[in-house]
Design a protein that fits this description.
Elements (H helix, E strand, L loop, with lengths): L1 H10 L21 H27 L12 E4 L2 E4 L8 H9 L2 H21 L21 H6 L2 H5 L15 H4 L11 H45 L6 E5 L8 E4 L6
Helix pairs in contact: 4-8
Subunit structure: Component of the ribosomal small subunit (SSU) processome.
Family: Belongs to the UTP11 family.
Subcellular location: Nucleus, Nucleolus
Length: 259
């Protein structure tokens, strides 16, 4: 019976789909059966997905917690994903890809020596302009001398520099700068010199802060590179602290008794 059915099908006429007429091409491509199948399957898949989402929305518990709440927030009815802080910055990645740990360690030691040298030549002072906590006490013999006592004259500096506890040059040092001014403008010239000195000091402190940040960055990169080298060691380990932009990942290796 099966052989007869096969022979009967072989004798059947093959029905071909009509091709697109030249006069109808302006209306677009003529849809064939294979195109209809694809469109129908896509429609049924979307319909089933919408039905499933509706069912989930009906069964959803408003008080239910899920971990996506931690990394997303809702704004104007739309859920937006919060951008998590990358454990490693772009500058750190560039340095780790281009250099090895020996270079990073060497540059860190160089910056550390320069920082110590600058600290030894600068006074670490507060940035505030408030009066210093330390006091300088002068002793005189009589009340009359106390009333006539001139602190600026005693210290040999300009009166406008008395509020400073640091970088207080004497008049002899200020006179080394030559100013083409009249005698009445001597006070303004000394104040201008003090401003120049203050600007130079500020630039030195900015350089010191920059070098400290650079040394800290190199220290972090070196620690992260050393942690990656340690990760190549065999043995079972567990993560104690994840990697952050300011610290490497911390792992603990389980002790294995040697036979």
């Amino acid at each position: 019976m099966s052989s007869y059915n096969k022979a009967q099908k072989a004798a059947q006429r093959v029905h071909k789909e009509r091709s697109q007429l030249e006069s109808r091409k302006r209306l677009g491509l003529l849809e064939k059966k294979k195109d209809y199948r694809l469109r129908a399957r896509d429609y049924q898949a979307k319909k089933a997905k919408i039905k499933l989402l509706k069912q989930k929305a009906l069964e959803k518990n408003p008080d239910e917690f899920y971990h996506r709440m931690i990394s997303s927030k809702s704004e104007d009815g739309m859920t937006k994903r919060l951008i998590a802080e990358e454990p490693i910055t772009y500058e750190q990645q560039q340095l780790m890809d281009s250099q090895d740990i020996r270079y990073v360690t060497y540059k860190g030691n160089v910056e550390s020596k320069k920082i110590n040298k600058m600290k030894s030549s600068l006074h670490l002072l507060d940035a505030s302009t408030s009066r210093p906590m330390n006091k300088h006490t002068f002793f005189v013999d009589t009340k009359k001398e106390e009333k006539k006592f001139d602190v600026a004259k005693r210290l040999g500096t300009h009166p406008s520099l008395l509020h400073r506890a640091f970088n207080r040059p004497k008049l002899e040092d200020l006179k080394t700068f030559e100013f083409n001014q009249k005698e009445d403008d001597n006070d303004e010239g000394e104040e201008l010199q003090a401003q120049i000195i203050e600007k130079a000091k500020h630039e030195r402190y900015e350089e010191l802060v920059h070098r400290i940040k650079r040394e800290q960055q190199l220290s972090v990169v070196g620690a992260k590179m050393q942690a990656k080298i340690n990760m190549k060691d065999k043995g079972k380990k567990v993560l104690l602290k994840e990697e952050t932009p300011t610290s490497p990942a911390v792992y603990k290796w389980y002790y294995k008794r040697k036979r």
